[in-house]
Design brief:
The complex is a heterodimer of chains A (466) and B (255). Chain A has 466 residues and is an alpha/beta fold. Chain A has eleven helices and 19 strands. Chain A has an eight-stranded mixed sheet with strand order 5-6-4-14-15-16-13-17, sandwiched between helices. A six-stranded mixed sheet of chain A has the order 8-2-1-12-19-18, with helices on both faces. In chain A, strands 9-10-11 form a three-stranded antiparallel sheet, with no helix packed on it. Chain B has a domain of 167 residues: Leucine-rich repeat, LRR (right-handed beta-alpha superhelix) (Alpha-Beta Horseshoe), CATH 3.80.10.10. The chains are: A alpha/beta (466), B alpha/beta (255). Chain A: It comes from Pygocentrus nattereri.
C-alpha cells in the first residue's frame, strides 16, 4: 500500500533527522521525537544488568556516593517487569550473622545496621515509612557431635566481630525450646540480635523507589549482547591475551526485536541466576582450557523448593529460624500456625532448572522424615502451598564473586551469593560502589571474593552448614 | 527517558505518590487530605532542587533532636562509672529511676532540672526505670545495658521505641520482671517475638499498640511463649470479627 510506504519513509526520515541533529548538537541526548516508549537512554555511565535487590542496592549507593549531583548516569536493566522468577522476591528473607568467613559476618552485620535505620537511608519525602516486617526471632543452628567443634570455632569468630550469638547445650536447648527433640544434638548456636527474617519485596521496592527518586533510569528489557573493543596484551609468561572493554550494551525490548545499544563506561553484572549467561556473551569461558580466557564464570541457577505447612501443634512466637545439621530449615510464617520449610538437595539430585515447578515428592520423601524426627509436633501437618526459586549458585565455593574480570576491563561482578544475597545486599552494594567510584574497598574489605581465586583454584569455603 | 538540560535548577518529576509533606506516623485511619500549603510545597519540591534540599534538611533536623538525646555517654562512663552514666542519661531524657536498695526515686522536675545526688552512690545499680514518654531509641539503650539488675522498665508512650529496641532487651534476660510497652506506636509482633529471652518476666503490658492487628491472638501467643508472665492490656476478643448475634451483647472481660 503506498500509504504504508509513505509512512515508513517518513519514519526513516525522522530517524535520519534525529541522528543528524544529534551529531550536530553536542552533549545533549534530548529528543523531541520518541519513536518507542520504554527505550533506555542512548548513553549512560553505568549500566547495571539485573534489577533484583543487588542491582538496585548498587544503583542506590552509586547515587548516594556520587560527589556531584547527577555526576553519574545510572541505568538498571531488568528483563522481567513482573519479577515472577526473580530470586530476590522468592527468597525466605532471612538474615543471620552465623557464618564462618569474616567477610560474610561483617557484611551481615553492616546490612543489619542498614536495616535498623532503613528510614534514614531509604526514606523518601512524602512517602510512607518503609515497613520491613522484621521478625526478630534469631537463627538457631543445631549441630551433631562431628560438626560441634566447627561450630565452636565459628562462634569465637562471630563473637570477636561483634555478632550477638550464644551457644546452648542440649539441656539448655530443651529448656528453651521443649518442642525440639535433642537426640543426636551436641551443640546449638542461637543468634540473639540482628537476626531474623523480613519481607524481601519491601526491601527491593524501597531501594528501587529511593534510587529512582535520586535519578536512576530504569529500563525493562533484556541484555542480548555487548559490543567491545579489544586490545592485545602480553603477560609476564609471554602469552598474548585479548583484553576487552565494553563499549555498548544491546538492550532488547520485551516481546519485540527492537533493541537499543546503550553506550556505557562500566557494566555491573548483578543478574543473579543469569549472570553466567551474561558473562558468556562476553566470551568469558570461550578460550583454550587452562588459560585465563577458558575459565567461565562459575555461577549457574539452582532450583530450591520452599514449602508452606500448617501445623496446629507447632511452636508459637518463640520459633526461631531453625537449621538442622541434616540440612532442613524451618521458620514461622505469620501468627496462624503456618511454617515455611525446605532443604537443599544432594549434589547428585539437583532438580531441573528450566522452570519453577515444585516437586512435592521431595517434601514427602526427604524433608518430612527429618522434620518429624527433629520436631515431633510436626508429625501431623498439612502442606498448604509451595513455591520454587533460583539460587545464583557459585559452583566453585558457594560464596560471592565481587570484582572485575582480568580480561574484561569494565565489568564488575556482584553475583554468586548462593542463597545469602538478600541479607548481604545493602553492604555489598556499598562495597561495589566503593570499588567503582573510589577504586578500592573502604569500609569492608572484600578482596577475598575477587574473581582471581577462581583463576588460581583457591576456593574460600564457608564452613557453616546450610 | 530524555534528560532536561535547559535550566540547572529544574529536575525530572519522578512518579511519587501524592501525600502530605510531613513524614506520616503509622496510623490505622487513612491520612487526611494534604493542605494547600503542603500541596504547593510538594509541587515546588518536584521542580526545584532548592526546595527538595530544604525539605530534606527539615526532616534531618527533626531526627537530630532524637539523635542528640540518645548519644553514647562514653566520657561520663569513663570518668564516673557505668551506673552514674546510666543515671545521668535517664535524667537527661526526662525519665526517672530508683537505685537497688533505696526506696526514693530520682526524677527531673517539670522544668527538666534534677539533683546530682546520684553522684554520691556510684556503686549502686539501678533497679527500676521509668522512661515513659521519653525519646529513647535503640541507640540510647547502649547507656543502660550495663544495669544487669534491672527489675522494672516502663516504656509507656515512647514514640521512638521500635522492634530493634525490643530485640536489644535480651541483655536484661536474667533480671527483668516488669515491662510496660503500652501506647508505643512502632512496636509490632516481630519485636514482641524477641521478648522470649526475658525468662524472668512476670508482668507485660501491651495495651494500645496501634500496629498490632490481632491483640487478642498476640496475647495468647505471648502467654504461650512466656508461661510465667501475666500479659495485660489485650482482651481475647480484640481483633476477632464478631458475628451479628454477638454484637449486641456486652463483651465479657476475661482476667
Amino acid at each position: 500500500c503506498p500509504f504504508e510506504e509513505l509512512n515508513l519513509g517518513l519514519l526513516n526520515q525522522f530517524k535520519a533527522f534525529r541522528e543528524k541533529a544529534a551529531a550536530a548538537m553536542p552533549g545533549s541526548d534530548w529528543s523531541p521525537i520518541q519513536v518507542t516508549k520504554g527505550l533506555p537512554p542512548e548513553r549512560a555511565d553505568i549500566v547495571i544488568v539485573g534489577g533484583g535487590v543487588m542491582g538496585w542496592s548498587v544503583a542506590y549507593w552509586l547515587k548516594k556516593k556520587e560527589k556531584v549531583r547527577d555526576g553519574v548516569r545510572v541505568l538498571v536493566v531488568e528483563k522481567d517487569p513482573t519479577y515472577s522468577q526473580a530470586s530476590s522476591v522468592l527468597s525466605c528473607g532471612g538474615i543471620r550473622q552465623q557464618f564462618s568467613l569474616k567477610e560474610n559476618i561483617l557484611l551481615s552485620l553492616a546490612s543489619a545496621d542498614f536495616l535498623k535505620n532503613i528510614n534514614d537511608h531509604l526514606g523518601v519525602v512524602n512517602e510512607d515509612p518503609v515497613d520491613l516486617q522484621f521478625n526478630h526471632s534469631g537463627y538457631l543452628f543445631l549441630a551433631s557431635p562431628d560438626v560441634a567443634p566447627i561450630m565452636e570455632e565459628n562462634y569465637t569468630i562471630q563473637r570477636d566481630l561483634g555478632a550477638k550469638v550464644i551457644l546452648l547445650s542440649p539441656t539448655q536447648l530443651k529448656d528453651r525450646f521443649p518442642w525440639i527433640n535433642t537426640d543426636g544434638i551436641a551443640l546449638a548456636s542461637y543468634g540473639l540480635e540482628n537476626e531474623g527474617w523480613f519481607d524481601p519485596w519491601t526491601l527491593l521496592n524501597a531501594f528501587r523507589c529511593k534510587a529512582m527518586s535520586m535519578g536512576v533510569y530504569q529500563c525493562f528489557g533484556e541484555v542480548t549482547g555487548f559490543r567491545c573493543s579489544s586490545q592485545k596484551a602480553e603477560t609476564t609468561d609471554g602469552d598474548f591475551v585479548n583484553i576487552k572493554r565494553i563499549k555498548y550494551v544491546d538492550v532488547r525490548m520485551p516481546n519485540s526485536l527492537e533493541y537499543q545499544p546503550v553506550e556505557c563506561a562500566v557494566v555491573v553484572n548483578a543478574a543473579g541466576a543469569s549472570s553466567g549467561k551474561i558473562a558468556d556473551m562476553l566470551g568469558i569461558g570461550h578460550g583454550p582450557k587452562q588459560t585465563m580466557a577458558g575459565i567461565p564464570l562459575p555461577v549457574e541457577p539452582r532450583k530450591r523448593f520452599v514449602y508452606v505447612v500448617h501445623c496446629p501443634d507447632g511452636p508459637g512466637l518463640e520459633c526461631p529460624f531453625l537449621i538442622d545439621y541434616s540440612g532442613f530449615y524451618l521458620r514461622r510464617e505469620g501468627l496462624g500456625g503456618n511454617y515455611i520449610t525446605g532443604m537443599s538437595p544432594e549434589e547428585t539430585e539437583e532438580p531441573d532448572v528450566s522452570n519453577l515447578d515444585v516437586d512435592h515428592d521431595f517434601f514427602h520423601d526427604k524433608v518430612w522424615p527429618l522434620l518429624c524426627h527433629r520436631l515431633p509436633p510436626f508429625e501431623c501437618l498439612k502442606v498448604s502451598g509451595a513455591w520454587a526459586g533460583y539460587y545464583d549458585y557459585n559452583t566453585f565455593d558457594q560464596n560471592a564473586i565481587v570484582g572485575t574480570h582480568p580480561l574484561v576491563n569494565n565489568m564488575f561482578f556482584v553475583t554468586g551469593f548462593s542463597g545469602h544475597g538478600l541479607q548481604q545486599s545493602p553492604a555489598v552494594g556499598r562495597a561495589v560502589v566503593e570499588l567503582i567510584l573510589d577504586g578500592g574497598f573502604q569500609t569492608i574489605d572484600l578482596s577475598a571474593f575477587d574473581f582471581k581465586r577462581i583463576l588460581y583454584h583457591e576456593p574460600i569455603l564457608e564452613r557453616n552448614i546450610v | 527517558m530524555a534528560a532536561p538540560v535547559l535550566c540547572q535548577m529544574r529536575r525530572r518529576c519522578p512518579v511519587v505518590a501524592y501525600l502530605s509533606v510531613v513524614r506520616r506516623e503509622y496510623a490505622s485511619s487513612p491520612p487526611s487530605p494534604p493542605s494547600l500549603f503542603s500541596r504547593f510545597l510538594f509541587q515546588l519540591n518536584q521542580h526545584f532542587h532548592d526546595v527538595e534540599h530544604l525539605i530534606n534538611w527539615s526532616s534531618w533536623l527533626r531526627n537530630r533532636v532524637v539523635r542528640r538525646k540518645n548519644v553514647f555517654y562514653g566520657y561520663t562512663q569513663k570518668r564516673f562509672g557505668v551506673n552514674v552514666a546510666a543515671a545521668y542519661y535517664i535524667l537527661g531524657l526526662g525519665g526517672g529511676f530508683r537505685f537497688a536498695g533505696h526506696s526514693d526515686w530520682f526524677r527531673p522536675d517539670s522544668r527538666g532540672k534534677f539533683s546530682y545526688d546520684f553522684l554520691n552512690t556510684p556503686n549502686s545499680t539501678i533497679e527500676e526505670i521509668d522512661l515513659s514518654r521519653t525519646l529513647i531509641n535503640h541507640a540510647g539503650l547502649e547507656n543502660i545495658v550495663s544495669q544487669n539488675e534491672l527489675r522494672s522498665l516502663s516504656l509507656q508512650g515512647c514514640p521512638e521505641v521500635d522492634d530493634w529496641f525490643l530485640a536489644r532487651l535480651h541483655v536484661f534476660g536474667e533480671s527483668l520482671q516488669w515491662l510496660d510497652l503500652s501506647h508505643c506506636p512502632h512496636i509490632t509482633v516481630g519485636g514482641l517475638a524477641a521478648l522470649q529471652h526475658l525468662r524472668k518476666l512476670r508482668r507485660l503490658d501491651v495495651s494500645s499498640l496501634p500496629r498490632l492487628q490481632n491483640p487478642g491472638l498476640v496475647r495468647i501467643l505471648l502467654e504461650e511463649m512466656l508461661p510465667h508472665c501475666e500479659v495485660i492490656g489485650a482482651d481475647y476478643e480484640q481483633g476477632l470479627i464478631l458475628t451479628d448475634n454477638v454484637e449486641e451483647a456486652e463483651p465479657v472481660r476475661h482476667k
